[in-house]
Design goal:
Keywords: ATP-binding, Helicase, Hydrolase, Nucleotide-binding, Nucleus. By secondary structure, the protein is α/β, with parallel strands linked by helices. The chain is 42% helix and 16% strand. It has an eleven-stranded mixed sheet. The chain has a seven-stranded mixed sheet with strand order 13-12-20-17-14-16-15, with helices on both faces. The protein is globular, with a radius of gyration of 32 Å.
Length: 1046
């Protein structure tokens, strides 16, 4: 029995069709077409030289037709009075030069529309549909649930009516499956292609992942000749560090004849993206933006252990300062009560659970359900759900409905799999209306929970951040168990973009007058942090483009394009060339300021300044030698007083003065990045130093263990005599490059996790020391104290002595105005130096970025015989083109050296698991099966060879870190599965979540298919059959369970 048949008795309701809409009263603010003649310049280059200005001007996109509409919508207040809320709808278009364009306001809608709706389209929907009717691409930037799907549906309907093909792409398979089911119900002629599943591939509308579309383009699929429109859902995924590059590749490779619908969450630089589309495909691209929310949001704070919730942002978007400070005072009072005792700390932890229990009870009493409770930990989601297990939010009839849906879904599993602990433990919660949703759940459980939530059978859902992505499953209320998260490096405040994405799940269109967002907080938060989170702008759409060997090899095979072509046209390059006009304008302004400065005795002052500059340069050399890890580590201990000066990306020095070291930590060298090639010994350690920063520095900008200081982290302006009002103590990370002086003094050191009170105490101690020595602290003597006897070092000391003597003999040394003249000349020189730096940066961004990396990667391919010296792809390269789900170089080398040919299918799947597993785990059974040790050693040995070749070709790779990418922790688990072990047995072998195991197996399936194709491409059918057999061995039971959406 199909799981959806349970719902057949209930009419299938569409939120759009049944929403109670109030007619929009719209007033046009600007309907005149405006062409910005000073549109930002863009630059195109060939691989070796820039295109002449006259040729460039032919391709510059023009920003035109700026139209802004303010629409009003009425909502009922709690006292039934009407509240009018306004929202913006903004339109712009990027046009190719000389394009015959007609303003969007003058568009006459078709008398025979491709699709009609039983409601009046919102202004942003109508504008977008108008663009599609004109056969022009459009980017729709709007909040979740605003109604962007209407625009995509219209493009599909128009394509089907015109007997053209249309492709709908989504970022992940789960979303593709859901979208396929929706579009199939709406249009009928729909197919699905996700790699492991292909349904009706000849359909006029094909739903697929972006990776599948990219693969079709590289292979020159005949389907692409018939495609008129491509819909990119969730295009803001393009900023994803790992997979974002797939979107860029695909968009660049698509033919100019294709038109696009880009659906996105709100992005502040949407117009920049549209200009890029216009430039690379020489076609108009409209941008339709709206800040419209179908249901306005109210944002509340719930202080830990507090008496209730505090409204901090109302539905009009107004920040309520008094309510915010009331919540903060409540936290302050609790902190004083708690003190520092361990007994009270234990109470505080217990209070966390009590608080969420109270909030859920309050939500249910006020009928604010359904509610999504966001947590940033899978374990915490489950723990909190279990704490609610005594509550029951469902009626007896709803119990029965949940049981039917659950049983219909689970019955497709083998009896043994139905008894898995995860399945058995979640069922009682679901019956009570309580659900859990995170990536560690079995896919079938996630889908059951999604269906139950959509049908209103779950009243409380504990979910991780991934639930906010893509799925159209709003609730009335959203709760954040914390507004701080660990991002892989440090604990930090949730960003404005992340908050917008998750809080956007609050409020169901047509069902709720308001959406409610509740933030649980247990620490002081500055108003600027709260405003930046709740009222802040969404995250920018910035390119995450990076080169890969699979990309390079595929581009070398495609006639008419090249890797240089891809670099030249990528969004990364476009965004950089957009900076040129601004850089040049800043440079002109700096030079103008420098020329206006007249300095008395400038020639003499300049000579003196140059001599002192040489002394400073030699001083830096001295510091560099002193601070080399081999000389300094034994002195850089907690409590040591050091002088820290940070140099930012613009070459500006930020002097943080003297501070106290709290911790010294070794860093990992970054791989395949710009910083990797500039790496030196001084960057291999981070000293965390307690320093004084400006009192205006927001605490949330201070990042642990990341030596790239965020703009806004500034040193205190005053010296040791400054008042506490001018500065505050913070612990900042500095590499050894930023330590300029080491004092011979040590003092008590605050711990690395010191609270505000402790930091302030240590800062006061430092001020007392500074006062005692009148600001001139005694320094470690590099020769006597540190024992540095290097001859070059001693030679530099002699040079400094000579230059100091020269300064002492200078005629201007006795001039009383020298300090003022010196300072004035320093300012002038700083302006000139910065202007020169801007000139160099301008030149850099005009050239194709990542070209040096491309040259190095090409050298690697030649040295490994993947290509010839003329960049012709050899057999090895053609094999590597088939592999995109694992390290293509290493896997290809292992194929050619016979490693896989000597293994059984069971051993092969175990070895390949190293290439698709990327989590950190602690296996209960850490011993590797004897049959797997030698194959894994072969993987490591070949990886070392590739790392060596990369370094020889000037592509910096740290061997140890490269080897760490191939994780053996699941080899034995996969090996036993391929030999017939049950899933329950696997769960006892590892602490990896069940859902994560399934995801790994499905990645492994994809890799096995690619490896089979790779073996076939070189004529090794015996190896291809082994790969196919390995695929057959792992495709069973839970791993092979079909999606409920299909």
């Amino acid at each position: 029995m199909d799981v959806f048949s349970v719902f057949e008795e209930k009419p299938s309701e569409s939120l759009d069709n049944n929403a109670k809409r109030i007619n929009d009263s719209s007033e046009s603010n600007a309907k005149k077409m405006k062409i910005d003649s000073s549109a930002t310049e863009t630059t195109k280059q060939t691989a070796d030289e820039q295109i002449p200005e006259t040729e460039k001007s032919k391709h510059q996109p023009i920003v035109a037709d700026s139209v802004e509409v303010v629409a009003t919508r009425e909502y009922k207040e709690e006292d039934q009075t009407l509240l009018q809320l306004k929202h913006q709808v903004r339109h712009d278009v990027a046009l190719p030069p000389d394009y015959n364009y007609k303003p969007i306001a003058e568009h006459i809608p078709s008398t025979d529309p491709a699709r009609t709706y039983p409601f009046t389209l919102d202004p942003f929907q109508q504008m977008s549909v108008n663009a599609i009717e004109r056969n022009e691409s459009v980017l729709v930037s709007a909040h979740t649930s605003a109604g962007k799907t209407v625009v995509a549906e219209y493009a599909i309907a128009q394509s089907l009516r015109n007997k053209q093909r249309v492709i709908y792409t989504s970022p992940i398979k789960a979303l593709s499956n859901q979208k396929y089911r929706e579009l199939l119900a709406t249009f009928g002629d729909v197919g699905l292609m996700t790699g492991d599943i292909t349904i009706n591939p000849d359909a006029s509308c094909l739903v697929m992942t972006t990776e599948i579309l990219r693969s079709m383009l590289y292979r020159g699929s005949e389907v692409m000749r018939e495609v008129a429109w491509v819909v990119f859902d969730e295009i803001h995924y393009m900023r994803d560090k790992e997979r974002g590059v797939v979107w860029e590749e695909t968009i660049i490779l698509l033919p100019d004849s294709v038109r696009y619908v880009f659906l996105s969450a709100t992005i502040p630089n949407a117009m920049e993206f549209a200009q890029w589309i216009c430039e690379i495909h020489e076609q108009p691209c409209h941008v339709v933006y709206t800040n419209y929310r179908p249901t306005p949001l109210q944002h509340y704070l719930f202080p830990e252990g507090g008496d209730g919730i505090n409204l901090v942002v109302d539905e009009k978007g107004d920040f309520r300062e008094e309510s915010f400070h009331k919540a903060m005072r409540s936290i302050g009072d609790k902190d004083q009560e708690a003190g520092a005792g361990s007994k009270n700390k234990r109470k505080q932890v217990k209070g966390d659970t009590t608080d969420i229990y109270r909030i859920i009870k309050m939500i249910m009493m006020k009928n604010f359900n359904p509610v999504i409770v966001f947590s940033f930990s899978k374990r915490e989601c489950e723990t909190l759900a279990l704490k609610m297990s005594k509550l029951d939010f469902n009626t007896p009839e709803e119990h029965d409905m949940v049981s039917k849906v659950f049983r219909n879904a689970i019955d497709q599993l083998a009896p043994a799999d139905q008894q898995l602990q995860q399945i058995q433990s979640i069922y009682p919660l679901l019956k009570r209306g309580i659900g859990v949703h995170h990536s560690g759940l079995l896919p079938i459980l996630k889908e059951v929970i999604e269906l139950l939530f959509q049908e209103g059978l779950l009243k409380v859902l504990f979910a991780t951040e991934t639930f906010s992505i893509g799925l159209n499953m709003p609730a009335k209320t959203v709760v954040f168990t914390s507004v701080r998260k660990f991002d892989g490096k440090q604990m930090r405040w949730v960003s404005g973009g992340e908050y917008i994405q998750m809080s956007g799940r609050a409020g169901r269109r047509g069902l709720d007058d308001r959406g409610i967002v509740i933030m649980m907080i247990n620490e002081q938060m500055e108003p600027a942090v709260a405003k930046g989170m709740v009222l802040g702008v969404a995250d920018r759409l910035d390119s995450a483009f990076h080169l890969g060997y699979n990309m390079i090899l595929n581009l070398l095979r495609v006639e008419g394009i090249s890797p240089e072509y891809m670099l030249q046209r990528c969004f990364f390059q476009f965004q950089n060339t957009q900076k040129v006009p601004q850089l040049e304008e800043e440079r002109r302004e700096l030079l103008k300021q420098a020329e206006s400065m007249e300095i008395a005795l400038e020639t003499e002052v300049k000579d003196y300044w140059l001599t002192r500059s040489k002394i400073a340069d030699y001083g830096k050399q001295i510091s560099k030698i002193m601070l080399h890890p081999g000389n300094s580590l034994k002195f850089l201990v907690p409590g040591r007083i050091v002088h820290a000066v940070y140099t930012n990306a613009d070459g500006e020095e930020l002097d943080f003065g003297w501070g106290i070291i709290t911790k010294l930590e070794k860093r990992k060298r970054p791989q395949f990045s710009n910083s990797s090639s500039n790496w030196n010994d001084h960057q291999s350690y981070i000293a965390e130093v307690l320093v004084n920063v400006a009192s205006t520095t927001p605490t949330h900008l201070v990042r642990r263990f990341d030596p790239t200081l965020v703009p806004g982290v500034l040193p205190a302006n005053a010296d040791s005599g400054s008042s506490d009002k001018d500065s505050k103590a913070e612990i900042l990370p500095f590499t050894l490059e930023s330590i300029t002086e080491i004092s011979s003094l040590r003092t008590e050191a605050p711990g690395p996790n010191a609270n505000k009170k402790m930091k302030k105490k240590m800062s006061m101690n430092l001020k007392k020391i500074m006062s005692k020595f009148k600001g001139k602290l005694p320094l470690l003597n590099p020769v006597k104290d540190m024992g540095i006897k290097d001859s070059d070092f001693l030679q530099i000391l002699k040079k400094i002595d000579l230059l100091e003597n020269k300064c002492a003999e200078s005629e201007i040394i006795n001039n009383p105005e020298l300090p003022a003249l010196y300072a004035e000349y320093s300012k002038k020189n700083a302006l000139i130096t910065k202007a020169e730096s801007l000139r160099q940066r301008s030149q850099e961004v005009k050239t194709i970025l990542q070209m040096d990396e491309l040259k190095s990667r090409k050298r690697v391919l030649r040295k490994l015989a993947f290509t010839t010296t003329d960049d012709v792809v050899e057999l090895k390269g053609r094999v590597a083109c088939e592999i995109s789900s694992g390290d293509e170089l290493l896997l290809t080398e292992l194929i050619f050296n016979g490693t896989f040919s000597n293994l059984t299918p069971e051993q092969i799947v175990a070895v390949l698991s190293c290439f698709v597993f990327d989590e950190r785990v602690n296996n209960k059974n850490s011993a590797m099966h004897p049959q797997l040790k030698e194959p894994f050693q072969a993987v490591q040995a070949m990886a070392k060879q590739i790392a060596r070749v990369c370094n020889e070709c000037n592509l910096p790779v740290v061997e140890a870190e490269y080897l760490e990418q191939f994780k053996p922790e699941l080899m034995d688990v996969v090996f036993q599965w391929s030999r017939g072990a049950t899933f329950a047995q696997l769960c006892k072998m590892t602490d990896v979540f069940e859902g994560s195991l399934i995801r790994i197996f499905r990645r492994l399936e994809e890799l096995l298919r690619q490896m089979s194709s790779a073996a076939s491409s070189m004529g090794n059918e015996e190896l291809a059959q082994k790969m196919d057999k390995g695929l057959e061995l792992i495709q069973r039971d839970l791993v092979n369970a079909a999606s409920l959406y299909l």
